[in-house]
Amino acid sequence: MGSTSGFGQSVRAPGEPWVWFTAVGLTVGLAMILALLALVLVEGLKAFWPRRVVEISLRPTGTETEPSRVLVGERIRVRPKATLQGSDRAANPAHREWQLFLGNKDVFGLSFRYVDVADIAAVRQPGGIWRIERTEYGPLLGWPVALLQPALDPLPASDPRFEATLNRLVEEARRRRAEIRKLEKHDIGRLNRQMEELHLRMRQASSRRLDEGAYERQRQAWANQIAELETAYNQLASRARELRVLQEQAALVCRLADGRETSVPIGRILAWYRPNELDFTGRLGVFLGRLREFLSEEPREANTEGGIFPAIFGTFVMTVLMSVAVMPFGVLAAVYLREYARQGWFTRAVRIAVNNLAGVPSIVFGVFGLGFFVYFLGGQIDRLFFADRLPTPTFGTGGLIWASLTLALLTVPVVVVATEEALAAVPRSVREGSLACGASRWQTIQRVVLPAAAPGILTGLILAMARGAGEVAPLMLVGVVKLAPELPINTTYPFIHLDQKFMHLGFHIYDLGFQSPDSDAAQPMVFATTLFLLALVITLNLAAIGIRNHLRRKYATGAF
Length: 560
Description:
58% of the residues lie in helices and 12% in strands. The protein is of the alpha+beta class and 560 residues long. Strands 6, 7, 8, 9, 10 and 11 form a six-stranded antiparallel beta sheet that branches. α1 packs across α15 (519-554) and α14 packs antiparallel against α15. The longest helix has 46 residues, at 162-207. The chain is flat, with a radius of gyration of 32 Å. The two termini are 44 Å apart.
């Protein structure tokens, strides 16, 4: 029936069904985004929540060759059996298998195992079992037996002094580990840099035409300094070796589920707790401790353990440098195209080219960055300013500065387009009023047009930051690496090391998901790292949005 226009009768707008259709599409899109964020949030935080440990007794089969039919581990998930396909899986919904985290990778050779639910005879939560976090080979699940100390009798786990003694030894090992890190990363590293600088000076002096006597005296002075530095280096290295020996002297003996006993050097123990005896407060404490470690420590065990602080810091610094580089070029290009360039076929062609650049695959920008920034520009810098260090490249290899410039080139079309739209939104009457008051064109742009367009320009920056922070493909060619615990900004002169390689959260996720030797162990870390990558991008965007809203309120007038 057609619509009528009589009094009291409803009139249907011609496009009303499409309005409802777009509303449904928007609702579905928002629901999908919220579902994705909820999945990442739940799975990411679940990686830090301590699970209960179960002891599983398997049914005898008569052909079993394993010495033990008892498994101890954390139940990670329950899923349909992987051997069932299609209709078989639908016809046998009871055929499930458990994924168990067994730990003790150094003993069992694997950390995870799938168990058929039909093979399980009994399940219980054993008492007194410990989960011991270690610096290598992942966690250990077992029952403490005794504490071995040099020149002392073994201290059994039943002794009242056992836990206090263990805590004291673990704290001493933590302090020794911190001292070893300071010796190797800072003190010995500083001596290595000083010796390298002296060797470089000797090579530079030998290539110049100097008085033979003066050169020999200077060379001898440098040689004496190098000898003193080598003596100090040997002393520090000897101290580090002594500390490492102390780390291995005391050990904790544990009994595993199959009855075997294994010893863990105290120097490799980070923390321990009883997962089956924790109340909610204790589990919350473990959760917060794991979360703190994840945000503040370096990765270990092929990035499947430890933290992601170097990746967070590297992503933040790279995004800030990219934003600083992309804003001037993007804004100046947009101002010229909108305010100065004659509008004709050439200007339209430039705009089309800019819009097309936004659709170029990111890996193409990575190849360009490798060829132009790294090999050409970085190679020229090395030949002009660091020729004495060649063939070892300084800037002629991937680094933080080249990664930031590559991503700035990748995101500059976004800034150009957004800035042009913001400039076009400024009414023409505002420009004419400023010119009528005697201001020049540049004064009008600088003091009237750009402040009014600042919120729109910052919108382009927000979009550029969101895209640049999550890019991975170009970074793999121009500076990002799997492991770089040294931060690009530190206390070593010149404090900001733009030539240094760095870690990135996006590449960290790729490495965990596709390059990890233990994909099951890496899966929780993938969700956790994704969660904090989203959190970092949202934090940077909120900061830019806050600045944009402030400028919008500041320059809001009745004319807009």
